[in-house]
Amino acid sequence: MDDIEKIELLRTPDYKRKLIQCIHCGLCLQACPTYAIFSTEMDAPRGRIALIRAAAEGKIGVEAFQGSFSRHIQLCLACRSCETACPSGVKYGELIETARIVVEQNRSISLAERFLRWMGTHELMLHPRALKGLARLLWFYEKIGLQTVVRSIDLLPKPIKAMETILPPIDLDFIETGKVYPAMNKKRGQVLFFIGCIQEAFLAPINRATVRVLQRNGYDVFIPAGQTCCGAAHLHLGDVATAQAVARQNIDVFTKQADEYDAIINNAGGCGASLKEYPHLLIDDPDYKESAVQFSKKVKDISEFLAEKMSQPPRGALNLRVVYSDSCHLRHAQKVSRQPRELLKMIPGLQLMEAQMPERCCGSAGVYNIAQVDTANEILDAKMADLQASRADIIATANTGCTMQLLAGVRRSGSPQRVMHLVEILDLSYRAEKEVIQ
Amino acid sequence: MNENAERKAMSKPSPIRQLNDLSRTLRPGQVISDAVELLTYRTDAALDHGDPDGVILAQSDEDVLRVIAWACANHTAIIARGAGTGLSGGAVPENGGVLLGFARMNKITELDREGRNVTAEVGVVNQNLDEYVKKFGLYFPPDPASGRSSTIGGNVAENAGGPHCFKYGVTTNYITGMDIVSAEGNLIRLGGRALDYPEYDFISLVTGSEGTLAVILRVMFRLLRNPPAVKTMMAAFDTVEEAGNAVSAIISRGLIPATMEFMDQKMMGIIEDYAHAGYPVQAGAALIIEVDGYAESLTHQMDEIKETLKEYTKWEVRIAASAEEREKIWFGRKSAVGAMARLSPGYLLLDGTVPRSKLASTLTAITRVCEEKQLQVAYVFHAGDGNLHPFILIADPEDEALLKRVVETGAQIMKICVDEGGSITGEHGIGTGKRPFMHLMYNDDEIRAMLDVKEVFDPQEILNPGKVFHPRNLGIRSENNIDKKINLVPASIAEAARSVRGLAAQKKPLYIEGRGTKGIYGRNGTEGLSTRSLNGVIDYALPDLYITVGAGTSIAELQAVLAADAMWTPAGSPWPDATIGGMLATNFNAPLRMKYGSLRDNLLAVMVVLPDGRLVRFGKPVVKNVAGYDLPKLFVGSYGTLGLITEVTLKITPLPRKRVSLVLPCDDLTAGLESGKGLLQKCLTASALLLCDGTGLVDTPLALVYTLEGLTEDIDAEISQVDQALQDMGINRKPTILDGISGSELWEKWILQGLAATSVEEPASLFRIGLPPAKLGRFFDGVRLEAGSRPPCVDIANGLIYMLGKVDYRTMQVQAKQLGGYGIFAAGERPAGDAWGYVPESISFMKKLKNRWDPHNLFNPGVFIV
Question: Which of B236, B362, B561, B602 qualifies as a cystine partner to B280, CB 3.0-4.6 A?
Fold first, then answer.
């Protein structure tokens, strides 16, 4: 079995201890989005842990690493909904993340996939300027009507089509890095803002709304230059080295003046979880171990921060029904689920609806909706059905991937609902208030 | 375990090739045969494991029929699996075979709101069913801790319990029907949506049989009205003993909380760490006590419990202030199993039951054993029903010596439970782990009787082979000494068994009777064997809420003994002389089921002489016992064709504090049934809802009788709901309130007077029709009652219609059958020839079982359908 590369990662005493923590009670099953589709053990957390355990014990051959073993590990969304359901405290996220690293070392990857990944995770995500360049191109693609043509002839190869499908309407009004956006009203403090890579390039209005809402609540918002992608996508694809490199870069950029700031704000559940988990990622790096801990302590999701520090409750009435669709990494990894709802409930006139399964993943899951198109679509369809049944006018999100996926979902299902980040809804309420005043 | 090697040698070659043949007839993705994927199907939630040869995920009835036919042809073991959350290894393919997974058959197929019945496929998740019916104001009480994942199929196969069983009973008490596939590959419906079908109660056999008798496809459950309010309190105690005594004290006050869950200090600490439920971790023990009913009565109930607790603890009780707080308390409790893993990577969890007065002494004994063996133990348990859950921690699951010590300790604990009069398993099942301990519960004759059942249902041993019973026991039958002394009125159980053996040796037919009250046998002067001398109380355990009496004890004698302690057993007969044995054998009871369950639900144990003379005892005097097949219920409604009931253990319960009947005048059947249907939706504390002869009650031909029993506050609240419902239906008449009178009494009087009043040309017979309750109206639309005949008495809640005198029974039977019911003669004269007009779908199994135990058809020949 030693022909399996990096298998030793599954055999460390720490990892082994985390594996046997699972007593296969099965209470995770109903929490798992893939189990909901397939009803099979190997596509449920308990079964995946059994598979990883078998691999650690040398019972999985190299051919299974090219085949069924890898397939089932990759079918996991890593939404970590099972962690919330697990009474035994199994750290499933850590288990699956390491297993993926081993899978990535051993499975055969097509040239095309290699190219796409390299383009995406190295040439684009790590280079904001290139990413914004692409955004400009795509903006043009949308504006001249080419998108409509492409979508109607439907000739793109599957992975490209998957990416095209989740392309949101692009707005090119980017935020300036290295700049301070000053507090409005009485100044209450100052925060650093982590803008994210895709979020800024493709969903710039959310970042602008975030800045405005923070200003409105009396915060100077500083956008440090030199910040980069959080590294979640790299880790997701098993590329630990790059994930660690970007973590170090972000820590360097943000901790330079972190002492003077109240928090490092982000508005994407997936990125936030990744930032908060830097200490785990850099646990073996003596130079960064400490600063990673200091850094992660300051990281706050926008709703987590606002629910605590809100000084100017939104007063503009929005007569809308809103359903909040939890971001998995915000809810299950960061354990933030109460705050977004509390914030939305503050808005006068807004009626907060609940979906049947608000905690269920939408199928975005990092690059899942590109890598596992069919399963992601099944998950999305179930999600859309649930969200539509809530009778809400607006679907509120809290993460980049979710926003793009749900935008695609609305289109796919023909739903009349609008998708907005919850901070955009808050911003809308503030603006409505202003208009009333004027 | 250690018989594995032996079994392995006997097992057949791998059926992978044949599996591929089968997979061609199914859809893609329904068959799993990849060796890596199969690794995920090696275990359930217990410690044992085994490698399946394949997994088939059924999606339809046809799939299952095809798979079973295939398994028959290939002699392949089929192990049904729901969510794999079982705690006894029931779904573990210890010797290979094919797992038949039901997770995809997960639809709730029918909800009958009026008749309060739901049909669910076996893959439906327990919690989903619960939440679904709650939307309609209905309640499905079984709530195993694994309910958020476990499936209905698994719950039925294990006869699962849960915290609410103390008040509401276990899964089997709610099943009215099920569709099964037999080991021979036939689709059979057992029971249905009506009650008390004239057939052997195979539902009770299949329920809790751990997948060894049949494969279940879907199940029909009766539902209750969801209690409109619930209150939950946490009571803390210094010691385990104090908590145990408090439980007994609450029960002895005549209070029946919905739950009484116990946790010791260690367990609370473990759970609190995970669930942050606010448990009193400083205390030595705690109880979660929940009461339900009308909001008006809860405060009073809580106060009374608090008052009682004062004598047993100095701790303040904490009452959950919000639904959220209550959910947290329960979420913590239901996470106990998983939360253990935070403390220790392995554990052995046992689930023995003891009569509840033995809880404290049992705990002391278990703790001592664990101390001797230097093992750590933590407890949670359902204190109300004496169901213990000791967790023995396994610090290192790879330490063989430690594991051996743990298993030995487990065995000792099971023995302690049986020695205290309890069972080795209350709700998890025997599966693989407890199999070696079945002999603690049953002697060879009893185990053989169970194996007879297994052989009747699954002669080829295809269904979950090897589970529950040790395979070595198969196929051996006991020899009996034959005695010539025959006494037709045996004075002792031993004498009864001797007499039966004597008669069997002479191949003489034998008619069984109690005191001859129902007189339905028409046995042409042949003398019967009477149980009338097998009478009197054998064991009466007031604090443990059971009584054991001879089968010949009359219902009046029994209730008189109990009434002295303000107790009773929920049963009634028009004839005070009716014997308990006779009531059970004919399954004939007063209309009490809605609140108290039926006779079978209140039967804990029986001692029976089988037709070949084997004297066997099944059941235990505890409300939860899932060791082996649930044979006591099989004798209920079997009309003495399977055995002679000699001794009976029944649940007892405090007499209701108050009992009143609302009586509403009704002009005709249609209007009465319509009003009844509306009122049925209000029944919570009600025990009966009857439409009966109005003579002497009201000045209309018919009267609608609505009986309420229980706490005064609950009754008052329900009366005002009934008044409101009548107004909403546009009925302006006010019901009169009869204090102290119950529907049962009116029903009894009506039958007695009716049978006495019949003239020469009128047969003195009582005809009973059973229907799905929602179909009552349609039944009367389709049949014509004889002009001038006495009006029927309709038990609206249970879908039973009673008719006296001359009845056009054949037409009635046809009409009833079309609506999913039946019609039978329940007492008095029975017409010659086939008076049943009903052939159960399970008739071939009825005949096989009858033939197995009574090959010469000596017991009550011609008395029942079989």
Answer: B236
